[in-house]
């Protein structure tokens, strides 16, 4: 048998005079483990977490609504404009101004396919 191979140990059961593995009593061991440190989450905490999630969803919806309203007004005013021009007007703080050029680049995150801005555009 190679070294480091698991070999169960055996002991003699004095009542039955038979051999059995000591790991057979694992169920008794598990039953003695104290799980009292695991506390169930009270309903109040669950409700508070649901309220926080609801507030977050409402905030996201409000942001999307503002972006949609801005885009609508922007396209009425400048129907031939580009995505980049819209982003520069909506989020001027995310522009990477090139001092040596008349072109401003927008933050690369606005080009991510899943970007809310791209989906709305």
Question: How would you describe what is shown here?
Answer:
By secondary structure, the chain is an alpha+beta fold. The chain has 4 helices and 4 strands; from the N terminus they run ββαααββα. A two-stranded antiparallel sheet has the order 1-2. It has a two-stranded antiparallel sheet with strand order 3-4. A hairpin with a 4-residue loop joins strand 1 (10-13) and strand 2 (18-21). The chain is elongated and about 80 Å long.
Q: What labels describe this entry?
A:
45% helix; two-stranded antiparallel ribbon; 121 residues
Listing every helix as H and every strand as E from the N terminus to the C terminus, the arrangement reads EEHHHEEH
Indicate the multimeric state. Answer: single chain
Q: Main sheet?
A: 2 strands, antiparallel
> Helix/strand/pairing class, anyone?
alpha+beta
Give the strand line-up of the largest sheet: 1-2
Task: Sum up the overall morphology in one term.
Answer: elongated
Measured by DSSP, the beta-strand proportion falls in: 5-15%
Structure summary:
45% of the residues lie in helices and 12% in strands. The protein has 121 residues and is an alpha+beta fold. A two-stranded antiparallel ribbon has the order 1-2. Strands 3-4 form a two-stranded antiparallel sheet.
Strand-helix topology:
Elements: E1 10-13, E2 18-21, H1 26-31, H2 43-77, H3 83-90, E3 95-97, E4 104-106, H4 116-120
Antiparallel strand pairs: 1-2, 3-4
């Amino acid at each position: 048998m190679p070294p480091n191979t698991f070999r169960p140990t055996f002991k003699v059961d004095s009542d039955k005079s038979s051999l059995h593995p000591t790991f057979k009593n694992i169920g008794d061991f598990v039953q003695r483990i104290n799980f009292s440190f695991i506390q169930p989450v009270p309903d109040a905490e669950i409700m508070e977490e649901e309220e926080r999630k609801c507030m977050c969803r409402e905030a996201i919806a409000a942001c999307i609504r503002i972006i949609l309203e801005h885009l609508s007004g922007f396209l009425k005013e400048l129907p031939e404009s580009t995505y980049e021009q819209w982003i520069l007007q909506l989020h001027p703080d995310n522009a990477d101004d090139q001092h040596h050029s008349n072109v401003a680049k927008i933050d690369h995150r606005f080009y991510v396919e899943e970007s809310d801005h791209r989906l709305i555009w």
